[in-house]
Amino acid sequence: MGSEMEMWQEKANVLIEALPYIQKFNRKIIVVKYGGSAMVDEELQKNVIKDVTLLKLVGFKPIIVHGGGKEISRWISKVGMEPKFINGLRVTDEPTMEIAEMVLGRVGKKLVSMVQELGVKAVSISGKDGMLLECEKKYSNGEDIGYVGDIVNVNEKILLDLIEKDFLPIVSPVGMDKDFKTYNINADDAACAIARAVKAEKLAFLTDIEGVCKDPDDKKTLISELRIGEARKLMEGGNIGGGMLPKLNNCIDAIENGVSRVHILDGRRTHCLLLEIFTNKGIGTAILNDVDAKFNGED
């Protein structure tokens, strides 16, 4: 009986610890970029959707921006085509664009079903709907990589209207240019542009890494909180490599354009979003501007 009572007491303590965070972020917008392994694993997928749904039910205003790279590659192989990449970016010819749009639409609708099963209204929209994501053709170091777009404008009114009507928007990173041609957009870029446009309080990237480490080969060097000045020094010092460089650049860009905090989280960890947002310690890397107080004991 004693240990059972302690267990319930511990649950109560966890809820109380979450209270100041719930108060602080009540009615604030959080953009969640969802992709990587957390999207492929069925169990993790359910847990991420539970996390985002809980955020909505306790007063946050979440927007999900999802990727689908692994699923797109799977379908490209399925139809006998070879996925091609230049400088880490998928070369998107017309047939690849067709597959990408189909797969991303399918992923969005699946996420809608999962959210609605938990009692929250959701809408899956493409960046083409209402010209949500207007883009122009992107080049990679001068090389033509096909139908890949850079966002030039976000029609945030669509998302704000959906949020006001109590829907959880789920966005596929596909956009159009001024001539109404369709482009595939990097999901990190889309999440960052949307977070800036809606002036999100938080932007959370669910990734396949623990967060930002001083030494990428040593998980014990994980940095819990990082100011953008410190992030720049790390990048200049050559400590950050691979896919983390563009991600950190996106984080800095978002914060310089009004997003309060950006979180880089390991989406493979169960309930990583809740642990990062509602506990004193957090589990990933929170990136903040150079003037804001830090979380732990300072605000």
What can you see in these coordinates?
The strands form 4 sheets. Strands 5-8-2-1-11-13-14-12 form an 8-stranded mixed β-sheet, sandwiched between helices. Strands 3-4 form a two-stranded antiparallel sheet. It is an alpha/beta fold. The protein is globular, with a radius of gyration of 19 Å. Strand 6 and strand 7 form a beta hairpin. Helix 4 packs across helix 5 and helix 7 runs parallel beside helix 9. It has 10 helices and 14 strands.
Q: Secondary-structure blueprint of this entry?
A:
Blueprint: H1 2-25, E1 29-34, H2 37-40, H3 42-57, E2 61-66, H4 69-78, E3 85-86, E4 89-90, H5 94-117, E5 122-126, E6 133-140, E7 143-154, H6 157-164, E8 168-172, E9 174-176, E10 182-184, H7 187-197, E11 202-207, E12 225-227, H8 228-236, H9 244-256, E13 261-266, H10 272-278, E14 285-288
Parallel strand pairs: 1-2, 1-11, 2-8, 5-8, 11-13, 12-14
Antiparallel strand pairs: 3-4, 6-7, 9-10, 13-14
Keywords, separated by commas or semicolons:
eight-stranded mixed β-sheet, 299 residues, single chain, alpha/beta, disordered C terminus, 10 helices, two-stranded antiparallel sheet
